[in-house]
Amino acid sequence: MNNPIKNRYEFVLLFDVENGNPNGDPDMGNMPRVDPQTGYGIVTDVCLKRKIRDYVDMVKAGKEGYDIYVKEGVVLNEQHTRAVDKIKPKDPKKPKKDEELKLAKFMCDTFFDIRAFGAVMTLEVNCGQVRGPVQLTFARSQDPIFQQEVTITRQAVANAKDAEKGKTMGKKQIVPYGLYRAEGYVSAHLAKKTTGFSEDDLALLWEALINMFEHDHSASRGKLSAKKLIIFKHDSELGCCQSHILFDKVKIEKIPKDLPPRSFKDYKVTIDRNVPKGVEIIEKL
Question: Has residue 1 been placed in a domain?
Fold first, then answer.
């Protein structure tokens, strides 16, 4: 790993789903998440971070400095003991301030997702907390989505008793089509001040955003694809303008307007390249 990044970034990620469920809501029978007031689809930041974590865990498995802190089945206090065994604070539950800083640094150096997203590590084994330089918004669909529940039949059965019933019925929850837009921020200030998020980490983040859906296919998710990754790079640590000014440079128009969209070709994406001085537009997709 190298030195912390020196430039601020914002980015826009466009991804779509065909006949799948990008992010089910367990409070609504796992139906696709939706804004109930508008009908627009939602994918949470937690869902997107999970996919980034899983991609990094896959491509960097076993490589020092790229472990993943938050993943299925992991006991977080056991992750913290790795730092405690290295730093050896007198009281792991209440470390002194200088010890806590050393513990947090060890965790940042060890886990990619802590360097990127930060973490609250004030558990039974206390490693402090850090605020991460990379943050994402909820993704929102460009148009209201149609939540569809599809009935399916099951021919195989689990036991002899069920065999007497014959075929059984089931449900799949899908969105026929939806184009989603997520926006994100990368703070060079926080990278330098807290986690040490580096240029190598940044390159891996862009790689993950482009490829994370390619290794996460399942019957329930349908066809999920990253379509556009548009990055705004500032020429300084603190940046040249407000982020919303740059986000507004990316416009999405639906065509034709009288039919519901069913593919990415039904949209036109334009980028206003008249950006403030000191900002560079980078298209990764």
Answer: no
Q: Is residue 3 part of a domain?
A: no
In a domain, 105, yes or no: yes
| Percent with pLDDT over 90 in the chain | 82
With 0.85 as the threshold, say if the pTM is over it.
yes
Q: Which domain holds residue 229?
A: 9-283
Taking alpha carbons only, the member of 12, 8, 52, 82 closest to residue 249 is 12
Instruction: Say whether 61 sits in a helix, a strand or coil.
Output: coil
167 Cβ partners below 8 Å, 6+ apart?
153, 154, 155
**Residue 158: per-residue pLDDT:** 75
User: What is the number of domains present in the chain?
Assistant: 1
The verdict on residue 4 lying in a domain is no
What is the phi/psi pair of residue 48, to 5°?
A: -65, -40
At 259 the pLDDT is 87
Q: How far apart are CA 238 and CA 7, in angstroms?
A: 7
Higher pLDDT pick, 111 / 164:
111
Q: How confident is the model at residue 233 (pLDDT cuts 50, 70, 90)?
A: very high
CB distance 233 to 7 below 8 Å: yes
| Residue appearing with tokens 């529940």 | 149
Identify each DSSP E strand in 125-273 by its residue range.
126-131, 134-136, 139-144, 148-154, 168-186, 223-234, 250-254, 267-271
Distance CA 69, CA 1 (A): 18
Q: Which of 162-176, 233-247, 266-280 has the lowest mean pLDDT?
A: 162-176
Residue 281, classed as helix, strand or coil, is strand
Q: Where are the beta strands (DSSP E) in 4-147?
A: 9-20, 24-25, 31-32, 40-43, 118-122, 126-131, 134-136, 139-144
